[in-house]
C-alpha cells in the first residue's frame, strides 16, 4: 500500500512542492505562463503533475497559484492497452517480425488483461528478441556494439522476461547518437570523484554500481496506473493546451499506439492529418483536434530532441506560441 501511494501521489506532490518553493525563491517568474513537458514514462508523470497543479489552482487567491497553461509530452506511455497493441503492430508493420508471429500475438494476447498468458509472453518475447539485435528506441539507428558493460547489454538484460518480473519489458534506456552514449554515461557516473561532486553515495557504502536502469527500483515499482487518458479528458475539458508528439522511428512507445490513445479520447477533428515543414522538407505530420494536437517527427526515435534537435525546437516554439505548425514549404 505504501508503494502504491508513493508512486501514484508522492512523485507529483514532491514535484509540485518543488515548484511552489522555486517560485517563492524566484518570485519574478511567478506571473509568467507555465507549461510542463516530458518524454517516455513522463507520459504518466507530466499529466499527473498537471492534474495536481490544476486542482490546487482552483483557489486562485492562494499564494501557491501557478499560471499554468498546458503540457506537452513526447513518445509517452499513456495507456497500457493501446501502447502494448501499438508496440506489437509497429514491430510487424516495420518488418521486425513475421506475419506468423503477429498472427500469434493477435490470437494469444489480450492486452487489456493485467497479466499476459504464457502464450502471449512467448509471442511478445519474439519481438523483444528481435529488438535485442537493433536499437528499439530508434529502429533505423546503429546499435551500440561495445562489450558486456555497454548499453547494449543493459538493453538485453532489460528485455529478458521473468515470471516474477513481468514488467521488466517496460524499462527505458537513454541512448544516443553516438549510439553508445549511455554506456559512457554509466562509466562516468560511477567515478568516485563525480559521485562526490554530486553528493551521491557519499560514504561509498552503497552496494554495486550505479546503473542507467535500476533493478531494485524496478522490482519495487507498482504499475497500478494503466491509463492516463481520464486525466487527458479532464484537462482538455478544462481548456488547457495539450500536445502529444511522437518520433516515428521509436519501437518502444511507437506512434501507432499513441495514435490509438489520442483517437480513444473521441475528440472532434479541427484540421485533418497533414504534413508540416521545416527548411522546405517534410518534418512530420500533425492532426488538430478541438482541445488537443498530435504531431509526428519524421525519422526521430524515442527522444526527439536528441535525434532531431532542429525539428524539436521548432515544435516546442510552436507549442509555446500557441500557433499551428507550418503547412507550406
UniProtKB/TrEMBL annotation:
Tell me the Pfam families matching this sequence. Peptidase_S10
Gene Ontology, cellular component aspect = vacuole
Enzyme Commission numbers on file: 3.4.16.-
Annotated GO MF terms: serine-type carboxypeptidase activity
Alphabetically, which GO biological process terms does the record hold?
A: proteolysis
PROSITE patterns (UniProt xref): CARBOXYPEPT_SER_SER
The answer to whether the entry has keyword Transcription is: no
UniProt KW keywords: Carboxypeptidase, Disulfide bond, Glycoprotein, Hydrolase, Protease, Signal
Q: What class of enzyme is it?
A: hydrolase
Family stated for the protein in its record:
Belongs to the peptidase S10 family.
- List the protein's name: Carboxypeptidase
Per the UniProt entry, what species is this protein from, by scientific name? Aegilops tauschii subsp. strangulata (Goatgrass)
Amino acid at each position: 500500500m505504501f508503494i502504491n501511494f508513493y508512486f501514484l501521489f508522492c512523485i507529483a506532490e514532491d514535484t509540485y512542492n518543488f515548484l511552489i518553493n522555486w517560485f517563492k525563491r524566484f518570485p519574478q517568474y511567478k506571473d509568467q505562463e507555465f507549461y510542463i513537458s516530458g518524454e517516455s514514462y513522463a507520459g504518466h508523470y507530466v499529466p499527473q503533475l498537471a492534474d495536481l497543479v490544476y486542482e490546487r489552482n482552483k483557489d486562485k487567491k492562494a499564494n501557491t497559484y501557478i499560471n499554468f497553461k498546458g503540457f506537452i509530452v513526447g513518445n509517452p506511455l499513456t495507456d497500457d492497452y493501446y501502447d502494448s497493441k501499438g508496440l506489437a503492430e509497429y514491430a510487424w508493420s516495420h518488418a521486425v517480425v513475421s506475419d506468423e508471429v503477429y498472427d500469434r500475438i493477435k490470437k494469444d494476447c489480450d492486452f487489456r488483461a493485467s497479466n499476459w498468458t504464457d502464450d502471449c509472453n512467448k509471442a511478445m518475447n519474439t519481438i523483444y528478441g528481435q529488438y535485442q539485435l537493433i536499437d528499439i528506441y530508434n529502429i533505423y539507428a546503429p546499435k551500440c556494439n561495445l562489450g558486456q558493460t555497454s548499453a547494449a547489454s543493459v538493453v538485453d538484460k532489460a528485455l529478458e522476461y521473468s515470471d516474477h518480473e513481468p514488467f521488466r519489458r517496460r524499462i527505458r534506456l537513454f541512448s544516443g547518437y553516438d549510439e553508445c552514449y549511455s554506456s559512457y554515461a554509466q562509466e562516468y557516473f560511477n567515478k568516485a570523484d563525480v559521485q562526490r561532486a554530486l553528493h551521491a553515495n557519499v560514504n561509498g557504502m552503497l552496494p554495486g554500481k550505479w546503473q542507467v536502469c535500476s533493478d531494485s527500483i524496478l522490482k519495487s515499482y507498482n504499475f497500478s496506473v494503466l491509463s492516463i487518458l481520464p486525466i487527458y479528458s479532464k484537462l482538455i475539458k478544462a481548456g488547457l493546451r495539450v500536445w502529444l508528439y511522437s518520433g516515428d522511428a521509436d519501437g518502444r512507445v511507437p506512434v501507432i499506439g499513441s495514435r490509438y490513445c489520442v483517437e480513444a479520447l473521441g475528440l472532434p477533428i479541427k484540421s485533418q492529418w497533414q504534413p508540416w515543414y521545416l527548411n522546405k522538407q517534410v518534418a512530420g505530420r500533425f492532426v488538430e483536434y478541438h482541445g488537443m494536437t498530435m504531431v509526428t517527427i519524421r525519422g526521430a526515435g524515442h527522444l526527439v530532441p536528441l535525434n532531431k534537435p532542429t525539428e524539436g525546437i521548432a515544435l516546442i516554439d510552436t507549442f509555446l506560441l500557441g500557433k499551428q505548425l507550418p503547412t507550406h514549404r
